[in-house]
Every structure is written in structure tokens, then in C-alpha cells.
Fold:
Amino acid sequence: MVRFGLFPLGLLFLVAGAANSFSSSSMKQQHYLTRTTFLKSSAVSTTDDLLTPKYQVEPIAIRIGHGFDIHRMVPIQDARQPIVIGGVVIDHKDQKWTDKDGKYVEKGGIYETQLGVVAHSDGDVIYHSIVDAIFGALTLPDIGQVFQDTDPRWRGCDSSKFMDHAYEVMARYGYRIGNIDVTLILERPKVASFKPAMKENIVRLLKTTPGRVNIKARTHEQMDSVGELRSLSCHVVLTLERMEDADE
Structure:
């Protein structure tokens, strides 16, 4: 039976909370300088149980997974963290955000502001969708069960840690990435120039090759919360291949 610690060496990653200053520049700097502490925890066994179902995860040749994630976007002073997608901090000019609740301008009016993502962790929709797709392909619980948004250990956490763990789970079940197709959906800011760095991060974290990872981005034609810059979302479809030297 496959058994797991929560992360390599059975350690948990706890990311320190936000600093008192919430300017755009300080938040971006904070994302890179956040202190990481390693703690042993009884939650290791809980996650171990979640990722080791009572039924057999059969060693079939190809598995297919789908992942989806969505997060709210708000003025960065409210989000208290920047937009991070595919491990990349998205630098951008002030955007025309729809103030649905009338906090900054007349209700439904346009407020020009830097944007951030509301999330318990860093809110990386690509990484979260990929992790969810890997777990789904293996018939395991979703990312929200494994990394619960009520757990203070994941507050502000760099989602590359979730990707590290998903890779470990996938490899221990005897699989590797077949291919990954990402569809990122957001109206603004534009992300075309950031896509190569996102792809490089995914390839590195999942120990695969560029020819197996694709990232597409599209708008929502100014419709609903995505079109009003109040949210962003992501779909991921991926395949897992059984490794030739995997134990049966």
C-alpha cells in the first residue's frame, strides 16, 4: 500500500503571515521574502489517510484528470497580496475594476486600482487546478480536502508547495505527466508576456518537458465577474502515464 507524508521528509510548510504594510510594491516583495518554517504535525497522518483510499488505485496505463479553480480579485489593499499565476507575480498597471458594492466609488462604478487575489493561500489558480487534476486522475480527494482553507498553516502559502506534494503523490503511485493543457480565464491584466515563465515553473516542479505542457489564456468577453475584473479562473485537463519501472 502506498503511504505518504504530507511533504517530502514528512514535514509541513508554514508560511508566515502578511506584513503590516500593504502597498503594491511591499506585497510583491513580501511574496518572495516570506519566511518558511518547517513543523512536524499530527496532520501528516490525516493527509496520509486521505491519499491512501481503501480501494485499489489500479495501475492502468493512462489516467485523465480535470481541475478547476476560481478566485475573487479586489483592490490590492483589500486582498493584501498580489496576483500570482503559475508561480509568477503579475505586475500590471492600474485596472478598471467594477466596484459592485460601492466601497470606493458609486455602486457599480469603475475604480482604477492595482489588483490582488482573495485566497487563503497565495491564490494561484493554475497551480491549484493542476494539483486538483492530478488528485482527480488518481481518484483521490480534491485539493480543498487535502489543503483546507480553514487551516492556518496554509495562510499565504506559496502554492508551489502544493505542486511539490502532488508530484510526490503522483510518482509514488507510479505515474508521470503525460501532458497538461491549461486554460486561464481573466479579462485583465494581460498575461501573454508571463506565459513562458509560468510554463517553465510547471515543467520544473513536475519534472516534465516543455513539449508536454501548454498554457492558453482567454478573456470572458466582459461578461459576469470575470469580465468585470472581479475574478479569475482556470481549467486544466491532463493525462498521467504509468511509468515503465513502477511497482505493481
